[in-house]
Amino acid sequence: MDRRKALKNMGMALGYTVATPTLISIVQSCKGETVLEWTPDFFTKEQGAALTQLVDIILPKTDTPSASETQVHLFIDRFADQVMEKEQQDFLKMSMDRFLEKALKDSGKEKAADLTAEDLEPVLADALKATKEEEVSNFKSIKQYNEAIAEGKQPLLEDGIARFAFANNLRGMTIWGYKTSEYVGEKVLAYLPVPGEYIGCADTKELTGGKAWSL
Asked: Which neighbouring-strand residues pair with 213?
């Protein structure tokens, strides 16, 4: 597999085109960073607190570390800040606001920083339970919304669709960030340090035990 091509395709699947050095730079900046009180670059502190809990709902701690333990929340924050275009940043903020508004309303709380995993999980589950047909309709509405924004209009997007957009986007970025983290790259995926042994012709199962290659 061409790792650079796979990385590019992963970004395109999420709606982003990312230069490999840029992504590596972001990953390296998160590696091994320990913070007692995280101050996000892109999100507000309250949004950052909710984000940290959300990534762990998506990828909780099992026999491998949780998403936040591998600094996925830092990765997403820096990716949004350093890579996303202005229109993508605005859409992410808008859709996250709609998502958190729903969580606050359902929980009866006033501040996003006070939201717990128990408050956030049902909102995330509801946003992601769309059928295939509903997903197609949602993506069509999202596309039309973004096209209207690009034309300088002020379109409306239903709250449910905005929450779906945020949850779906967050899930993709969480998995992406987790798979590019140092721990997962070296301990979970098939890892070959550079320089390494070159084997021209061999069965993938024999080389990696069926694991995907670490990026």
From this structure: 190
Answer whether 109's CB lies under 8 Å from 115's CB: yes
Strand partners, 190: 213
Report CA-CA distances (Å) from 97 to 5, 91, 165. Answer: 33, 10, 12
CB atoms under 10 Å from CB of 42, counted, come to 18
Task: Determine contact, residues 193/172, Cβ cutoff 8 Å.
Answer: no
Cα separation, 30 vs 170, in Å, equals 18
Name the residue type at position 120: L
Q: What is the pTM of this model?
A: 0.73
Helix (H) or strand (E) holding 177: helix 159-179
Place of tokens 């997403």: 76
Decide: 166 and 92 in contact? Cβ < 8 Å.
yes
User: Per-residue pLDDT tens for 134-179?
Assistant: 999 999 999 999 999 999 999 999 999 999 999 999 999 998 888 8
